[in-house]
Amino acid sequence: MSTDLKRGLLFSAMIFVVLLTASLASLAIWARVQTPSRSGIYAVFLNGGQVYFGTIAKEDDQRLLLQGIYYIQLKGGQTSVLADQSDVSLLKLGNELHGPEDWMEINRDAIIFIERLKSDGKVAKAIEAYKQK
């Protein structure tokens, strides 16, 4: 086999490995963005004191897609979780006057923190009870 042929085959093999590595890296990034990275019910705390409860359907570095959304309403119509916890009700998103669909795309800049809820917590139990209706 000639030296030029060996160099050509080596070069082709190196190009193949580089393309394969780039393809696998792209696939891994796409899969991370496209599939839910978290299971269970989460509390998403936003700037201004609002909190939404639901499942994280998709997320990336810029946004989080929340579905099956519930939120707290306190006596007097307040929705901040920072208020007193007496006379609290859990509401399902979608029944408001403007009729939103049951999903929300939240900018990461608006999120203070995210917590996974225990399945035996009050909010998780209230969500499960609502689903049983």
What does this structure look like?
- It is a single chain.
- The chain has 133 residues and is an alpha+beta fold.
- The chain is built from two helices and six strands; from the N terminus they run αββββββα.
- The chain is rod-shaped, with a radius of gyration of 24 Å.
DSSP strand content: 25-35%
Question: Average pLDDT across residues?
Answer: 83
Helix share of residues?
25-40%
CATH architecture classification of the largest domain: Roll
CATH class wording of the largest domain: Mainly Beta
Oligomer category: single chain
Keywords:
133 residues; alpha+beta; SH3 type barrels; 2 domains; six-stranded antiparallel β-sheet; 6 strands; rod-shaped
Note the topology.
Layout: H1 3-34, E1 42-46, E2 51-59, E3 63-74, E4 88-92, E5 103-107, E6 111-116, H2 122-132
Antiparallel strand pairs: 1-2, 1-6, 2-3, 3-4, 3-5
Structure described in brief:
This protein is α+β, with helices and mostly antiparallel strands and 133 residues long. It is 32% helix and 32% strand.
